[in-house]
């Protein structure tokens, strides 16, 4: 095969907002908000790089001692963008999380493999290693790619109406790219979560150890604010070293190696889907996944 055969793909994404992520600082806490509420905060690359900008801004600002990640609108995040006008999978962005080359003109499985090393696996690992404490404030849906954003945070506080779900086995894919399932959940529960693809309510997620606290929806922001203030009052270096210690322990238990293997299997599934159905997602777009969810419920 001649790997110099580059591919021209249409870049027809149309963004509905120039601010896919909002940022504010109050009382030493950076509040970072996913801001595509009309599409349930589906994550396109525009949002991903804006989120990286916000995390970088908070990490670099000495006045910020803690970080909260939230979602605007009805849901925290419905996952990766697989069907909005702003889906920008074919668009080039400057590499930040990895040194992988630009994906947009690459053939075959190289196209998604290079892209997702950067925007999914690489970015999530980068955000997990932010030395400042992070809290995910989850309400409504936290689905598939939404899980990845919550899981990179140190703490997860959920409203009582929140639910968590990774239904991508329906696409023939073994879970999302940042494969932390067997570390966020007991392995047997992780298998149930993936194989059945059912919604896990906030209370059960708390019982399984994936969520730190569940509160009524109208108390969510105030509760998270109080927790963030407590984190902000802790010694900066002590917090950073504690995060490093726990993250290192997880990696010694195999988290990073397991994730690398699962990422490879994830992309084998994409390639297999394209071979047998002509589509990397096995014919599922956002509407089809939502419809399957309703039918499954």
From TrEMBL:
Cited InterPro entries: ClpP/crotonase-like_dom_sf, Enoyl-CoA_hydra/iso
Matches recorded under Gene3D superfamilies: 2-enoyl-CoA Hydratase, Chain A, domain 1
Organism superkingdom: Bacteria
GO MF annotation list: catalytic activity
Recorded family membership: Belongs to the enoyl-CoA hydratase/isomerase family.
PANTHER family given in the database record: ENOYL-COA HYDRATASE (PTHR43802), IP11341P-RELATED (PTHR43802:SF1)
Protein name: Enoyl-CoA hydratase
């Amino acid at each position: 095969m001649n790997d110099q055969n580059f591919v021209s793909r249409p870049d027809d994404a149309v963004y509905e907002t120039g601010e896919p992520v909002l940022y504010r600082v109050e009382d030493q806490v950076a509040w970072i908000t996913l801001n595509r509420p009309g599409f349930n905060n589906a994550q396109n690359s525009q949002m991903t790089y804006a989120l990286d900008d916000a995390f970088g801004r908070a990490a670099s600002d000495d006045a910020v001692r803690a970080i909260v990640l939230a979602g605007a609108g009805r849901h925290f995040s419905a996952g990766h963008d697989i069907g909005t006008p702003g889906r920008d999978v074919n668009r080039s962005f400057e590499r930040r999380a990895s040194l992988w080359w630009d994906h947009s003109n690459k053939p075959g499985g190289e196209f998604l493999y290079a892209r997702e090393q950067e925007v999914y696996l690489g970015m999530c690992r980068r955000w997990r290693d932010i030395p400042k404490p992070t809290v995910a404030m989850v309400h409504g849906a936290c689905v598939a790619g939404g899980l990845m954003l919550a899981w990179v945070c140190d703490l997860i506080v959920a409203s009582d109406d929140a639910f968590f779900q990774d239904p991508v086995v329906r696409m023939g894919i073994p879970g999302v790219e940042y494969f932390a399932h067997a570390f966020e959940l007991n392995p047997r529960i992780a298998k149930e979560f993936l194989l059945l693809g059912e919604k896990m309510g906030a209370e059960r997620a708390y019982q399984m150890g994936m969520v730190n606290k569940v509160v009524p929806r109208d108390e969510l922001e105030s509760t998270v604010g109080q927790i963030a203030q407590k984190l902000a009052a802790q010694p900066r270096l002590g917090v950073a070293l504690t995060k490093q210690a726990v993250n290192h322990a997880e990696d010694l238990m195999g988290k990073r190696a397991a994730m690398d293997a699962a990422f490879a299997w994830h992309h084998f599934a994409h390639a297999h889907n394209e071979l047998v159905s002509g589509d990397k997602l096995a014919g599922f777009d956002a509407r089809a996944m939502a419809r399957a969810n309703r039918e499954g419920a």
